[in-house]
Amino acid sequence: MAHYETDEPIYALATPFSPSALAVIRASGDGVLSLLQPYFSTDLIKARSQQALHGYIKGKDGKRIDEVVLIKYSKGHGYTSEEAFEIMCHGSLPVIRSISLLLEGIGIREALRGEFTYRAFMHGRMDLTEAEAVEEIVKAKTVRGAGEALERLSGTILEEADKAKDSILNILASLEVQLDYGEDEIPEEWVFPSSEVRKITDRLEAIAATYASSRLWSEGASVVIAGRTNAGKSSLYNALLKENRAIVSPVEGTTRDYIETDAVIGGIPVHLYDTAGFRDTDESVEAEGIRRTEELMDKADLIVYVIDPSSSDIAPSDNRVLTVYSRLDINRREAALSFSSVTGEGLDRVIEAISSRLTADLEETAGVPTIDSERQHDKLMEAAAALRDAEKSISFGLDVTAMYLQSALTSLGELTGEVTGEDVLDRLFSSFCLGK
Amino acid sequence: MRDYDAIVIGGGHAGIEASLALSREGFDTLLITQSLDAIGRMSCNPSIGGLAKGNLVREIDALGGEMGRLADKAMIQMRILNRRRGPAVQAPRAQEDKFTYSRLAKETLESEKHLFLFMDTVVDLITDDSKRCVVGVVTERGWKISAKAVVLTTGTFMDGKIFIGEYDARCGRLGESAAIGLGDSLRRLGFHTGRMKTGTPARVRKSSLDLDEMEIQYGDDPMRSLSFETDYVDRPSLPCYVTYTNDETHKIIKDNISRSPLYGGKIVGKGPRYCPSIEDKVVRFPDRERHQIFVEPEGIGTEEMYLNGLSSSLPEEVQHAFIHSIPGLRHAEVMRPAYAVEYDYLDPLDLYPSLESKILSSLFIAGQTNGTSGYEEAAAQGLIAGMNAAERLKGNKPFILSRTESYIGVLIDDLVTKGTKEPYRMFTSRAEYRLSLRHDTADQRLTRKSYELGLATKERMERLEKKSEDIRRVKEILQHTRIGQKSAYDTLKEPEQDIMALGIEALGSFPEEILNEAELDIRYSGYIDRQERELEKARKAENMEIPADFDYDSVDGISSESREKLKAVRPVSIGQAGRISGVRVSDIAVLAVAVRSNGHGQ
């Protein structure tokens, strides 16, 4: 059974998870400062406690995530009285998300609701009355089951997890029979049910993989409109947004940098980028714009590549590319996806194509329930990894195999928020004829 | 009659350990038993140890208990079970000469100068009502004897009743009267009692068996000891025999199933699922073509053989018929019938982890009375109850072993936290951290604790120190010996490696057990590290104590369901509270905050 812990590194977003000017992420627990240090540009160890430090948060790839202000707390100071820090970053969702991912990646887990308060109280540092502290935790029980992960767990996931748990429990019971009864009573050798375990593992991983696609819905897909200069990119961009946000002019190279707008296309939340066109140029400002376009294209979920049908341009070969021809009113290309920003003809087909391409990933995993939280994803992957380790361990010792199977069950139990699982022994007695 | 420091009621495996622990710590202890001829009697199978149970025996021994030493002196076969299935789940099992075991047990009790033996039946407890504590006992023959602590170990005798088909009798064992009266007295005092059932198979005469029709099962050679104090086992090794039931056996049983008191509804007590009677096996698993039967000697100076796997409560003529349908047993002369026994047990949820009663202080309860089954489970509780009675007499804090360090801790924690609905038997799968609970490390886990309380002897402690030093030296040598690119130490982490096969000369002077133990430590170190973090968390929660008088009603924010469960169990720590089934994580957090703010916590 899980407990609220003290000292284990945890973090939480202290401000709401919605776009705003500033966001505050705080972390607490033994060693949080040294865990973060490699990813923060200013020396945390030398700094005084309660000092505000300016610096950059870097991702694991070394790239800057954001410019932030960080307040350091040594042990004995701060809210929880544990070693802690608070990061004030820009309140954009990708920034918050990237920092959260980084913290999780370096071994700081997401806090349970009320866990900071709990720690403050347990360390006797907090000036709150007992009632207040208790209330906050109690509130957590209704909001989130305080760590029982029922927050957004759909019925289908619950069913799937229970099904996997049931199968693993059966396998574990068949193994435990061998471990808890002597070889003279159960002389048969236990055989690891590889194909069954692989089926479960694959299924858990398939569900975990839906996290990426469901992220598309909750955070928005990035769609980059690219193409040569003057191919009609901004016309498409504006037509898609149905408003004149970008400057549209017949002169090549007007959109020198890129423009970003959040929109909903075909029901999907989208970050839509209009970019600088590709063209050989000596002009340094424009060259910089093109470089940025390339960067954007790298990260895009979908690249809408616009081609002037009178040109000889060919779309780059990339499976994220959707080729669209402009100026349908002037130059009609049969059988190709075309539109006219003047008449509006063909736009509906372009929109449909964009949304169907974006949801293609989702359709691929049809029949697999989707999850929408990092934690659920992690628990599923933990369970899958434990199952793989279980198979690898059979040559080592069945007692170790049993430990891995048990650990897979624990991860799935944490996923569904089940407090006490079904007893392996109950399963064992009901399925096997035992006892001298 | 004079007063005693402590009284132990019952001379079975729990009573033996409890009375020895108390008297060896210097307390004048009176053991009262219904029969001085039945001390340490093995009512059922003639063996000690086995999977998980063998670990218990070695833990009892490591703490200075007697079971391992008695078993070493009375064994007639020894096997290490499950060698192939992983070191964490292998364990020793010894077949025993029942008569020698029982005689040696009595001799051991008689040799303690602070221990007194008396034959009578306890029918009531004397209590001090103002303090809600026990101050003595009343016996059937009218003795009133005072003591500052009482350990209750009634086994299957409290209102015991045996069943053989239509026959029943008020007995705790065949031919031995039940203890009548104590159950009613305890109910009057507010104890929660229930009925449980267990059974034992028939005994047959060896010379009437067709031994050549059965498979022979030999023991290990050399014979290993159960006790850490035994250097060398010099005992005869007798074989056991294996045979199987068949269609005819099953038909006889099915045809007569209505005559079983289990199926006729005469027995209400719950029996153990892991040790079903033969009629249970036949009814519940109709597809099984045969069931395995082990034929085991009951001792050296006896012809009686134990039919392991054939426990039953069917009428005797039915028993004879199905026994005679089995190869090897076709001409068997049945000397004692199989029978079922039903008895009163006391709800272990009424106990603290020290095995002291929540209802009556200074009363400790151990063994089958708490709803367990098995000699080893009984002895383990008897030992802990005795040790805690001694701590209580010294005015010290209770001695509690945790789940993370011992099977004994798992056993007692399960009982007092979850209770039990069937006779509780130890299984390795009940222990979350079984990789750390190998039988060969019991001394390293436990002996020092007992030594510090004054039970384990100095000699035992010195043995442990020598062994630990030897293991340390072996590991050091392995670290400094290179095998190819790696140290011998790292080489041993690979599954197929064997310390003996490495051919390291410097290891030649160490005993095999030391080498094996060092090898297992090394091989499993990665997995044990994996468990360490979990273990650390568990220990922390275990160390957050909840005061005995904690008022659960004063805490706002605990769900009423959890509150009732907490009040029923009265956990001693946040860790124990977290294991009560159905109590929510958030309620435990609220509780921790409340305990902390009460100023008692941490």
Please tell me about this protein's structure.
The complex is a heterodimer of chains A (436) and B (602). Chain A has helices at 32-36, 93-105, 115-122, 130-144, 155-180, 194-219, 233-241, 284-299, 347-364, 374-392, 398-416, 424-431, and strands at 10-13, 22-28, 52-58, 64-73, 84-90, 109-110, 221-227, 259-265, 268-274, 302-307, 321-325. By secondary structure, chain A is an alpha/beta fold. Chain A folds into 3 domains: 10-127, 2-Layer Sandwich (Gyrase A, domain 2); 133-210 and 368-417, Four Helix Bundle (Hemerythrin (Met), subunit A) (Up-down Bundle), CATH 1.20.120.430; 217-359, Rossmann fold (3-Layer(aba) Sandwich). In chain A, the strands form 2 sheets. A 6-stranded mixed sheet of chain A has the order 3-4-5-2-1-6, with helices on one face. In chain A, strand 8 and strand 9 form a beta hairpin. Helices cover 35% and strands 19% of the residues of chain B. Chain B has 19 helices and 24 strands. In chain B, strand 12 (171-173) and strand 13 (176-177) form a beta hairpin. The radius of gyration of chain B is 25 Å and the shape is globular. At the A-B interface, helix 3, helix 4, helix 5, helix 11 and helix 12 of A face helix 16 and helix 19 of B.
Low-confidence stretches of chain A: 126-153, 243-253
Share in β-strands of chain B? 15-25%
Instruction: Calculate the mean pLDDT score of chain B and round it.
Output: 93
Most extensive interface: A-B, 51 and 68 residues
Helical residues, percent of chain B: 25-40%
Distance between the termini of chain B: 46 Å
- Under CATH at level 1, the class of the largest domain in chain A stands as Alpha Beta
Query: Biggest sheet of chain B: strands, sense, closure?
Result: 7 strands, mixed
Strand order of the largest sheet of chain A: 3-4-5-2-1-6
Overall shape of chain B: globular
Q: Give the radius of gyration of chain B.
A: 25 Å
Shape of chain A: flat
> How large is the count of helical segments of chain B?
19
Question: Helical stretch count of chain A?
Answer: 12
Alpha-carbon distance between the two ends of chain A: 34 Å
